[in-house]
Every structure is written in structure tokens, then in C-alpha cells.
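wait is this the right file?? whatever heres the structure
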């Protein structure tokens, strides 16, 4: 089983366990909202641009609400569990699901896990931490483009990646999964340590990051 599929399955199991009204790290979203978001992302290409383009976001939000109202919570979770239909790029292009959805499913799995009381970081399956680091290295400049300070990522094994070249710079240190959560703007729920000027660290902790 690929990492994207195993993360998808684990996320759906957790959504089933928690029910529709549990909190997530996605501001204002319950588990039902998150399930609807994932269903729309993979099944409504007309609404997909609004996930990343602010001007189109109201249309995407309206589609998401309609999908949420049309389906029961178990149906929404089942749509996510089934994965993208075969007619979508995820199904048509070999390897695209693993390339794109590994990070998506990992982050949203953690969005649900880390919003619950007494969460702790997982010991990831073999190879997944390396995959997250590879994705992070290739997209770090995109993730941290909105940072008001320079950012260097340092994995606990010593590997480094440049997030943003600027001064003052902050070094963020942690496992790849924690640095990925930082990169997606989940600073308050990322087990990351920092080196640098305290004021610059505060700015990074409060910055709007992510895609």
C-alpha cells in the first residue's frame, strides 16, 4: 500500500471514530467540514481552483456546504475512503496520487489527530518521514514565501533545506513530520525548536504559512 493510501485509510478510520462534530486544526472546521473538503477536492474539479485562489474561494465554500448537506457524515467519509474517481488526474496519471496526496492526507490526518486532547507525535511508517522531507525540500520556498523572516529547516539528522533567504533568519529544527506541519502553518501544533533572534522567532511563529 502506498503512503497516500495508508494515510487516507488511517484518516478515515479516525474520522469514523470521532464523528462529525470533532474539532480539527483547520480554522472553523469540524471533522464533517474536513471530510466535505476532501470529497470536493477530489470529485468537483469546478470547485478546485477556489482552494488556492482567494477570489474563487466563495464558490468553493458554497459547493462544499452543498456537498456536506447532501450527504450524511458516514457517506462523506466513505467518499474520502474510496479515493479519487478513475476519471480524475489522480486516477488517470500513474503515480500522481502518491505524488500529490501523500502530503495532503498526512497533514489532514494530523489536523484531526492534533486537535484532540493529549495528542503525541506518531512514529511514522518506514519511509514516510523521508518522503515528507523530500517534498518539503522541493517546496520549502513556496511554503515560506509569506514569512517575514528568513527560514532554514534543519531535520534532526542534520539535513538542511532553505525556506526563505532573508535576514534575520531563524533555524527551525525537528523531524520531517513536524517541519511539514510548521510549513503548513500549524506552528502551535508542531513540535519544533528554534534558533535565532527571539523577535524573529516570534514573527515566524505568528506568520501565515503554507500553500
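ok assuming it is, sequence goes like this
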Amino acid at each position: 500500500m502506498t503512503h497516500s493510501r495508508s494515510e487516507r485509510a488511517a484518516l478515515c478510520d479516525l474520522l469514523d471514530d470521532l464523528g462529525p462534530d470533532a474539532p480539527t486544526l483547520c480554522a472553523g472546521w469540524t471533522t464533517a467540514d474536513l471530510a466535505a473538503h476532501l470529497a470536493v477536492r477530489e470529485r468537483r474539479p469546478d470547485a478546485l481552483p477556489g482552494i488556492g485562489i482567494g477570489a474563487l474561494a466563495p464558490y468553493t465554500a458554497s459547493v462544499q456546504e452543498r456537498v456536506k448537506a447532501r450527504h450524511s457524515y458516514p457517506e462523506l467519509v466513505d467518499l474520502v475512503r474510496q479515493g479519487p474517481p478513475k476519471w480524475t488526474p489522480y486516477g488517470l496519471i500513474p503515480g500522481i496520487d502518491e505524488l500529490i496526496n501523500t502530503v495532503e492526507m498526512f497533514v489532514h490526518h494530523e489536523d484531526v489527530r492534533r486537535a484532540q486532547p493529549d495528542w503525541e507525535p506518531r512514529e511514522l511508517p518506514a519511509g514516510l518521514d523521508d518522503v515528507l522531507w523530500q517534498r518539503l525540500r522541493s517546496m520549502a520556498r513556496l511554503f515560506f514565501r509569506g514569512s517575514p523572516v528568513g527560514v532554514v529547516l534543519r531535520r534532526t539528522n542534520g539535513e538542511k533545506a532553505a525556506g526563505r533567504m532573508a535576514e534575520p533568519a531563524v533555524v527551525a529544527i525537528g523531524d520531517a513530520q513536524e517541519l511539514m506541519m510548521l510549513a503548513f502553518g500549524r506552528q502551535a501544533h508542531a513540535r519544533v525548536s528554534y534558533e535565532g533572534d527571539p523577535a524573529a522567532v516570534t514573527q515566524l511563529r505568528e506568520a501565515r504559512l503554507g500553500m
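The two ends are 27 Å apart (CA to CA). so i think its the right one actually
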